[in-house]
Amino acid sequence: MRVAIFHYWLVTMRGGERVLDALLELYPDADVYTHVADPAALSPRIAARLKGTTFIGRIPGARRIYQKLLPLMPLALERLDLSGYDLVISSEGGPSKGVLPPADALHVCYCHSPMRYAWVMPEGYLAELPAPVRPLAAWLLHRMRIWDVSTVPRVDRFVANSGTVARRIRRYWRRDSVVVHPPVELDRFAIDPDGPGDAFLFASQLVGYKRADVAVRAFAGIDRQLLVVGEGSELAALRRIATPNVRFLGRVSDDELARLYARCRALVFCAEEDFGIVPLEAMASGRPVIAFGRGGARETVVDGSTGLFFDAQTPESLRAALDRFEAVEGSFDPAAIRRHAESFGRARFVAEMRELIEGWLAEHQTGGRLAGPTLQ
Known about the structure:
The protein is α/β, with parallel strands linked by helices. Helices cover about 40% and strands about 15% of the residues. It has helices spanning about 15-25, 45-50, 60-65, 75-80, 115-120, 120-125, 135-150, 165-175, 210-220, 235-240, 255-265, 280-285, 295-300, 315-330, 335-340, 345-365, and strands spanning about 5, 30-35, 50-55, 85-90, 105-110, 155-160, 180, 200-205, 225-230, 245-250, 265-270, 290, 305-310. The protein is globular. The two termini are about 35 Å apart. About 45% of the residues are buried.
């Protein structure tokens, strides 16, 4: 059986790319395609199976400006030749599922989310653009949504990375999906035998929807320490509003991030995420999470056991949660928090995906009905 996996872009190793790496454990001989790739930034397993890119990857400077090339990606997907493959897996978070699979192939889409900039947060995306280009960008997003819906029948089965994303798939694409949570690389994280240090931790890309501003403002001028890990377009603005008890560490290595997780008092997580792997990485290090109580965090953080929720993306709400946390900080059991994270491990992900895909392939080979029911 020949297997092709298409991932939207491969320029770093974050949550979506670690899902791809786990899929390659399931299908080690699969060919990997993408719009644009930086092999040096990828895991050895992904780099070894990288077969090619769409024409996006051949545009000068594509690794740097690939997000600006979004309007070309639908055409690029449809120009990709996947003939000869028996199983096509699209890893959808940017334009991916619109590939044209062979007529007799099974197409499974693992969906991190329908495109956030087109469906979930278009106004936030547009607000980051210069005002003169916003009308054109809004029209292009309108056309992208039309194309995105038109490509839904190209997928036989959808797998969602969370219940939040499953609801988006139902809302925007009118299709059912099966939830399989992404894998946590448990071996990368461990409980620090010396216990936590004195600082809280915020770790994320520093872009608007991650809401680092909530954390920085909540810690402004108070007697608590916050370490901020990450880079992004919001960094300069965050530095302007930060007080001396907030330290910016920039991008750190995987080993250093694991150490910071294990030594923090708690992770602060302010985004409404599709799923959110960062809280689970902190919990795999035995540390509790103080999270905004919407989105994927609701599926990973157990309030009162592995962390606490705050109910509004405001500094005041987060500060109140910090007060509640300090009142019960000693009740959190690092070993119990780690055991909870272990239920999201890589072996579980691979086993669940294998069972699903093997069942769908057997149904496909016997001529069974593949497409999930369309909701009325």
